[in-house]
Amino acid sequence: MRSGPMQLLSMVLLFLMAAALAGVLVYTVRAGPLLVSGYGNAAPGGGGNDGLKNDIEQKVRLAEAMQAAQNKATQKKDANVTKSETKPETKAEIKYSRGGYDVTPLSESRINELAKKLTPEERDIILAKGTERAFCGNLTDNKKEGVYTCRLCALPLFASDSKFHSGTGWPSFFQPFDKDHIAYHKDTAYGMERIEILCSRCTAHLGHVFEDGPAPTGLRYCVNSASLEFSEDKDGKHNLPAASLPIKTSVAYFAGGCFWGTEDLFQSVPGVINVESGYMGGHVAKPTYKQVCYTDTGHAETVRITYDPSRVEYKALLKQFFRFHDPTTLNRQGPDVGTQYRSAIFAADEAQLADAKAFIEEQSKREKYQKRKIVTQLALAAKDGDAAGFWVAEDYHQDYHEKNGGHCAIPNDDD
Ligand SMILES: [Zn+2]
Q: What average pLDDT does the structure give for the chain?
C-alpha cells in the first residue's frame, strides 16, 4: 500500500485531534482538584446532570480567576516599584462586570479610607482574613428576600435566591450575584488547600467556596456575615443604595468609514464599555451588508459606543473620532468610496448635538482644516426601529479585527 498525500493528511489530522483531546484532559484535570472539602459539614449536594455543565464551567473559571489573581498580585508588586499610581488609567485597568458595575480594583488608599467605618471584629475578618465563629453571624438564618452587598465597598455579591440552609453555621450561597464580582485565591493556611473568595473590587475577604453545594452549581460559597451588608427587597424589587447600583451608561454614534476599524479603535478608549458595528442614517429598515454595499439604502457604516460618562466625556470621544478618521474626504475613507463610508455624527440627544456642533466649529478654525474643509454630517440619531435608526450589523462584522487580526493605523497626535 502506497502512502499517498491523503493518507498523510489523515494521519496529521488524527495527531492534531489526539493532541487537542490531551489538552482538554490536562485542562480539566488542572481545574478539577482545586475545590476540596474544608470546614463545615454540609450534606453533599445535588449537582446532577443539569448542574454538571455549570459546575465544570465554574471550576474552569475558578482556575482562570486564580491565575488572574496571581498575575495581578505580581503586577501590583511591579507597579509599586515603578510608582505607577501617577500614570493615567488605561483600558486594561478599568473593568466592568457583566451586570454593568464598575469593578475596577480600588487603590490601597481608597480601601484604607473605606476601612475606617469597620469595627475591630469586621477588620479582623475583612482585612485580616479571619473567620467568625459558626452560628454567630447575624445573617446565617436570614430568610428575607434581598441582596447581600460587600460590607467594605457596597458591591452586590450574593442574592437571596441563591441562599440555602447548609447547616454549617455560616451564610451559604450556591452562586454569586455576578460572576465578575467575586475573585478567587488559593489559600493554603492551616495545612489545608482551600479556595478563598474575595470581593473582586476591594479585595475584602468573604470566606471560601467548596464543592458540596446544591444544584444547579454544586458549589457552596461559605461567607462570613461580617463581610456582608443586607438590603431587603421592596415590593418584589431590589432596593439597593446608590453605591450598590450599576453605573449609568451613555451611547454615542459615529460613522467614520469602514466600521471594522472604527470599532477596533474605540474599543481601546478607557471608559468605553462596548462598541458595536452597524448601519445608520438610511431609509430601509433591517438593512443587510449586501444591501448597503450594492443598493442605495442611504446607510452609513456606523459604530454604537456604550460608555461610562463618569470615566470618559462625550467631548473626549469626539476628539478621538477625529483622530481615528479623516473628516475632510466626502463619502470616502482611504480606499473605501461610497456614501456608506461618509463621515457622520448621530447625536443621541440635544446635549450631544450641541457638543458636537461646538466641536466641529472649533475644529473648523484650525489651520489644518482651512484648505481641506470638514465634511462631517451632524444629525440627531433616529430612534431604534426607525429605518434611519441604528441597525446592528451581521455577527461576522462584530469585533472583526479582534477575530481576524490586523489593526488600523492611528494617525499621529497633532495637539
Ligand atoms: Zn468590596
A: 83
